[in-house]
Structures are given as structure tokens and as C-alpha cells.
Amino acid sequence: MIDIAAGSIYALPAALLFYDMELKICVFSDTHGRSEPMLKAVRREEPVLCFFLGDGERDLNVLQESFPELLVYAVRGNCDLRSSLPLELHCAVGGVEIFATHGHIYSVKHDPQLSELRDAAGRARVVLYGHTHIARCEELEDKLVLNPGSSGYGAQPGYGILLIEDGRVQARLRSL
Fold it and tell me: What rounded mean pLDDT belongs to the chain?
């Protein structure tokens, strides 16, 4: 399990900081006890790393046990009681700055423009969040905003994909 202080910057392997090939990243959130859809997505996509945006820390542990070589960055959600995971994280992957959080501390259910969340992200180009169980992928001002929806809960679980190459990023939503 990842154990770092809240607000820390993750130390990525040097090979991922400035990678000269396309990086595929899976983004998951809100599995709420259903890890199998997330495991299926990892088998399908074969990502170089994953972000887990909270509400399913036990599922995160299953992911890490199933794919011990997979690099996974995680934050805690409002349902991850007694978690030592941070509330948010900042990192750079392939020359792209990323901010990740569950979102519950930034009023994401009540602010369609995500003003608080975008402000907290600072200069990050990509903002990842969960909490709402509603998938969303769009440009808001100068930020690429991605919410994968629920990756295990509900009628149609889904996840997000980030593709990073030469400092450029693309995002997609996928269904399971």
C-alpha cells in the first residue's frame, strides 16, 4: 500500500518523468467493494501506471496484489475510513503535471465549473477526481478534467484513460 503524507509530491521513476513513447494510464474511482471491473480494465489496457481516486481502498489492495509490478498512485475518498492515503496528490508524468483527489473536499457535486477543484490544482494541466459517480471528460479553461465515474458500482462501471506523449495529453472515458 502507498503511504505518504498528505499533499506530498509522488516520486516517479525517472523513466516516467520524460518518456519518449506514449504512456497509457488508467484512472479508477469509487469501486465500493467491486474490484473485478477494475482488474478487467487493467488486463485489457495494460497501462504503465494507474491512478485510484478513492472510495474502495480494499479494492486498491486487490489491484496491487493482482498486479504487483503495476505502479499505482492513490488518494483516499470519503468512504475510506481510517485510511493513511493522502487526500490529494500532485505529480508529473511524461512532462504533464497532474493533480488527483477524490473531490469530496472541493464541492464537486455542487459546482459544475469545479472552481474550487481547479484552484486547488494550481498549475497542473490535468485534474483527476471522483466522488460523483458521474463520468466527465472535458477542457475547463486551461485544465483537462477527468472523472472516470464509478469503476465498480452502478449499472455501467467505467474508467478513464490518459494518453501522454511528448508532453501532450489526451483523455478518454471507457465502459466496462
Answer: 90
DSSP 36: H
Q: How many helices (H) and strands (E) does the chain have?
A: 4, 10
Q: What is the pLDDT of residue 26?
A: 98
Q: Which residues, 6+ apart, have CB-to-CB distance to 163 below 8 Å?
A: 22, 23, 24, 25, 169, 170, 171, 172
CA distance 123 to 136: 20
Give the number of residues written for the chain: 176
Provide the domain limits for residue 49.
14-163+170-175
- Going across the sheet that includes 136-140, the strands are 88-93, 96-101, 126-128, 143-147, 136-140
| Residue 44 belongs to a domain | yes
Q: What pLDDT digit, counting tens, does each position of 91-104 carry?
A: 999 999 999 999 99
Q: Which of 99, 66, 83 is nearest to 169 (CA)?
A: 99
Say how many domains are in the chain.
Answer: 1
| Domain containing residue 77: CATH number | 3.60.21.10
Q: Does residue 85 sit within a domain?
A: yes
Structural contact between residues 30 and 77, judged by C-beta atoms closer than 8 angstroms:
yes
Report DSSP state, residue 10.
P
Alpha-carbon distance 33 to 38, whole Å? Answer: 11
